[in-house]
Every structure is written in structure tokens, then in C-alpha cells.
Amino acid sequence: MNKLVIAIIVSLGLASSGYFVGNGIKYFRNFDRSVEVKGLAEQTVKSDLATWSINFAVSGDTLAPLNKTISQNQKLVTDFLLQNGFKQQDIQQGTISVIDNWANQYGNNNEKLPHYQISNSVSVTTSNVDLVAKVSQNAGELVNQGVIVNNNSISYFYNSLNTIKATMLDQATQNAKQAAETFAKNTGSQVGKIKSASQGVFTISSPDGAIVNDTQNISKKVRIVTSIQFFLN
């Protein structure tokens, strides 16, 4: 076999190899064509649990009468809650706390303060969030009864996230697919099956979305963002 024939055979082999390699890359790229998009789902929900803590205090120079007064105040607060529709099992009594103002080593005017300050609290935990919102507006009645309220705090929570997770994830997936279809349309492609998906974190925020883990509002916004890759055909 002369050199000319050998050269022709080698040339044909290289050309054939290049053809298949080129088509293999092209096929691989077509098979692996995909687009990654974000999917968003949001839903407004209503809190299903509320905690209301009412703290009160008395001050004076003799412990015994102060202790008696703080106990009376605790009963007044408890009766107020019961009379306004709360259940006894939802009400929790706090524990007494005593501060000796004169024992404070800071400042020069401690002896001008009452010797003692005694504080206590009553709290309620209930699923009746509307009752909490309504009755808390009338907390001034306690002041009229002589209760010195120094902290009146309410927190609202949403604990039923598991009941809406599946629906919201489906909504986020559909939202992502719409975005992928828009992209595919502009590139002359069609959206295929899901290649991969990554679920984000569910967040519960204020209705405007500004405060994450909000506890001040009865209404809340639940939000989920997913990342999904779709094959393009």
C-alpha cells in the first residue's frame, strides 16, 4: 500500500471521527437545553393563635400591704378576662417579682424612690384571636379599677402552615412554568419536563411583607419562592 492510499484512508478516518464528535456535542447540547426560573406563591392568612400578657405593678415602703394589693390586682385582671369571655383553662397566672429600689447602688436619689416595687402578670393563650383583639381595646377598665398596667403585649401567630404548603408549592411551580414558557416562546422552544427543583423557605410576614416573623398583625402573608429547571425541547 503506497503512501498516497494510506494518506487518503487516514484523512477519511479523521473526517468521519470529526463528524460523529460534532454531532455528539450537538445532540448533548440539545438534550441538555434547559432554563432555570423562579416560582412565587403568596397567600394571605389569618392568625390562629394569640397570646396576651398583662403585667402590673405596685410600689411602696412596706412589703405586706404591697403583696396584698398585687394579689388583689391579679384577681381583678383574671376576673376581667373571665367576664369578657375567656376560658379559665386559657388563663395563666404569673409569678411575683420584688425589686428593692434602695438596694440599687446606682444613682444618688434611690432613697427618694419607694422602697419596693412588686410586679406580677396574667396571660391568656387562645385560638380566639378576634376576642383578644376586641377585649384588649377595653383594657383601660383595669386602670379604672386601680390596676397599674405597665406592660400590655399581644402576639399573633399562624400555626397551620402545613395545611397550605402543598397548594402553595403547586402554585409556585405553575408560576415558574409560566415564566419558562415565556422564555421558551422567545427562543422558539417548548417547555419540557422538570429537570430539577429546589424549594425555598416559607416565610410568614406582615401583610405588606415588610416584617418577617411578624407577631403584631392578625392578618399575615405567607410566601414561598422555588427554583426550578425545565428542559427545553
Automatic annotation (TrEMBL):
It comes from Aquella oligotrophica. InterPro entries: 26kDa_periplasmic_antigen, SIMPL/DUF541, UCP029033. One of its GO terms (biological process) is DNA damage response. PANTHER family: SLR1258 PROTEIN. This is SIMPL domain-containing protein.
